[in-house]
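Sanity check. The docking grid for 2'-deoxyadenosine-5'-diphosphate depends on where the pocket ends up, so I'm generating a full predicted complex first rather than guessing from homology. Inputs follow.
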Amino acid sequence: MDRTFVMVKPDGVARGLVGDIISRMERKGLKLVAAKLELLPENRVGEQYKEHLEKPFFPGLKRYIMSGPCMLMVWEGYGVVGIARTLIGATNPTEAAPGTIRGDLALDIGRNVIHGSDSPESAMREIGIHFSSQELVEYTRIDESLLYE
Ligand code: DAT
Ligand code: MG
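Predicted complex below; grid placement will be based on this.
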């Protein structure tokens, strides 16, 4: 089964959007396999955003991500990486479609509420940065034939 890393950023936590975001992912049918509220240390922010370290927006991004607790999650489902990106919407909320998390709940690229891994490889890497294997819970939720043919 595929897994992805999703993180509600500090603006989303502070604005009380965690419940709505979890609810959207649950109602889609995705399975939550790990979750924790955490103030990210600098080294893990650097690891998480490795590809952006040299970008001009990185210092501001780091300050934003470390400005308060983030809600870190791992979600499971067939094709979950792409499904979560679709639910999340475009990086810039001004371009994110209505119905998506960023389209409905955010205004600014620098306060875009949520992170989701962009590929299965990124997902594996990002889950490894933030979670130990013991934190990923294996359990049966419902009869999977209700979700998948
Ligand atoms: P995404 O989060 O949709 O995967 P990304 O990986 O390109 O987008 O960028 C990571 C985060 O960095 C993004 O959620 C918001 C911030 N960011 C990206 N491009 C930016 C820009 N041009 N100005 C300010 N912040 C930016
Ligand atoms: Mg990205």
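Relevant for the grid: The first strand starts at residue 3 and ends at 8.
Also worth noting: The two ends are 15 Å apart (CA to CA).
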